[in-house]
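Take a careful look at the protein record below. Let me know whether the structure tokens fit the sequence:
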Amino acid sequence: MTHLVFLGGKGGVGKTTLSCAISYQLAARGRRTLLVSTDPAHSVGDVLDMEIGPAPRRVVDNLYAMELDLEKIALEKGSRVKNIAVKILPPDVYEAFSKYVDAVVKGPGVDEYTLIEKILDFAKSEFNYVVFDTAPIGHTFKLLQLPDLLKSWLDMLRRQRLSYVKLSKNVAKLKGEDYRGDPLLEFLEETAKKIDAVTQVLKNPSRTSFFLVANPEKVVLDETLRFIERLTEIGIPLKGVIMNKYRHPTNPKVRRLVEKISTLIIAYVHEDEDEIYGVEKISKIGAVLMPVINKLTTLS
């Protein structure tokens, strides 16, 4: 069974470097691991110092990496849906359906929705672990919040569409025609099932681990504390905080903020004067991340 690992945090805290390091350590322990960049400003390839694209590429034994182009995936899915619909829908119904699909794939939140569908695919994959290098914290919260929001929205759309379907069935019956079904209702119902499945995976601590990455800086720590509260509100279990680029804080405000989350901090990664990139340097961050790796490997 695939375990999903998310690293979230404010932009610039070092999520990508730590995602690469954790993925490497899991692979080094014989776990088949996929590292997935979901941040539009992809940096996984830069940190690994190799070309990474939309298909999984082998990095070392047991470790593969890929960068998702969510906009492209959404447009391709929209085209596939319309290609099926045009063959079975009357022209007037297809026209309305086509406009609906175009609005969805180009609308706000499409990247997050597309990623939700991909998360479900990854949860059923052949990998032991899928590690997500996420977009900055605001985008990540939108992603985690989206399943609950979508469920309410889909329930409303399904109720409206069911009224239309009931009317269409009655009209077809009066005309002595066979009712041909409603692809839009089928699409909405299938989407609702996927959303329910993703929600179950994300909120199950035996299937998903969420870690926050922070730095000893006031702005970062303030946002980290807010995000911890939000995760609790939406029922996403937090496995711990990784304090990256750590140096002993001299600012009393920063010290107090670090103390507030001290019970959640499971690893301290000290600030390094050298830039960390390339598999060889990534492989050397293992010792300080052992608490994270131990938490994850006890799950498999």
